[in-house]
Amino acid sequence: MIFHDLISAVLNEREPFHNIWFAGDFHTPPEFSYQVNFPRLELVLDGEYINEMESHDRKVTHIVAKKGDAIFIPPNCWNKPDWDTDC
């Protein structure tokens, strides 16, 4: 399936987002995390997407994003995905 078809299918389903998480940048990013100077939006289309990230109250936490959830990572903020699960 090409990217255009995937995005079109998601938009046509019109399934609302259940949770939207926002990453922070107060703490030093852990080893093997992703930190870039542009914003990112990660959408979970299927399965679970486990991440370590800084929450709005400046605590490092693990979140489990499921189908219909989104994670927004502003510029220079970080997240650390756990690639041991299907998403």
Helix content: 10-25%
pLDDT averaged over residues: 86
* Low-confidence blocks of residues: none
Please state the CA-atom Rg, rounded to the nearest Å. 13 Å
Give the count of structural domains. 1
Quickly give the structural class.
Answer: mainly beta
Report how far the terminal alpha carbons are from each other: 16 Å
In one word, what is the shape? globular
Strand content: 35-45%
Largest sheet: 4 strands, antiparallel
Order of helices and strands: HEEEEEEE
What count of helical segments does DSSP give? 1
Strands ordered across the widest β-sheet: 2-7-4-5
Report the strand count: 7
Set out the fold topology:
Blueprint: H1 3-13, E1 20-22, E2 34-35, E3 40-43, E4 48-54, E5 60-66, E6 70-73, E7 78-82
Parallel strand pairs: 1-6
Antiparallel strand pairs: 2-7, 3-6, 4-5, 4-7
Structure in words:
The protein is mostly beta strands. It has one domain. It has one helix at residues 3-13; strands at 20-22, 34-35, 40-43, 48-54, 60-66, 70-73, 78-82. A 4-stranded antiparallel beta sheet has the order 2-7-4-5, with no helix packed on it. 13% of the residues are buried. The model has no long low-confidence stretch (mean pLDDT 86).
